[in-house]
Amino acid sequence: MTLIPLGIPRRLLEFTIDGEPVRAPEGSTILDACRSVGKDVPTLCQGDTLAPKNACRVCVVEVEGSRTLVPACSRKAEADMQVLTDSERARHSRKIVLELLASSVDLSTTPEVAGWLKEYEAKPDRFGPDAARLNEEPKVDNDLYVRDYDKCILCYKCVDACGDQWQNTFAISVVGRGFDARIAVEHDAPLTDSACVYCGNCIEVCPTGALSFKSEFDMRAAGTWDEPAQTETTTVCAYCGVGCNLTLHVQDNEIVKVTSPHDNPVTHGNLCIKGRFGYQHVQNRD
Amino acid sequence: MDLRFGDSKPTDEERAAIDTLLGPPESSWEGADRSDADLRWARGGREARERRDLLLPGLHAVNDRIGWISEGALDYLCRRLTVPPAEAYGVATFYAMFSVKPRPATVLHVCTDLACAAAGASELCAGVEAGLGLGSGVSVERSPCLGLCERAPAALAIKAGDPVRTAVSAPATVERAVLAASSPDSAPEEPPAALAVPQAGDPSLMLLSRVGVVDPASLDDYRAQGGYTALRQAFAIGPAGVIREVTDAGLVGRGGAAFPTGRKWQATASQPDRPHYLVCNADESEPGTFKDRVVMEGDPYSLVESMTIAGYAVGAHKGYLYLRGEYPRALERMEHAIGQARARGLLGDDVLGQGYAFDIEIRRGAGAYICGEETALFNSIEGYRGEPRSKPPFPVEKGLFGKPTAENNVETLVNVLPILTMGAQAYAAIGTGRSTGPKLFCVSGSVDRPGIYELPFGATLGELLDLAGVRKRLRAVLLGGAAGGFVRPDELDIPLTFEGTREAGTTLGSGVVLAFDDTVPLPRLLLRIAEFFRDESCGQCVPCRVGTVRQEEALHRIVDRTGADAASDIALLREVGRAMKDASICGLGQTAWNAVESAIDRLGAYE
Ligand SMILES: Cc1cc2nc3c(=O)[nH]c(=O)nc-3n(C[C@H](O)[C@H](O)[C@H](O)COP(=O)(O)O)c2cc1C
Ligand code: SF4
Ligand code: SF4
Ligand code: SF4
Ligand code: FES
Ligand code: FES
Question: What is the predicted ipTM?
Answer without folding.
Answer: 0.96
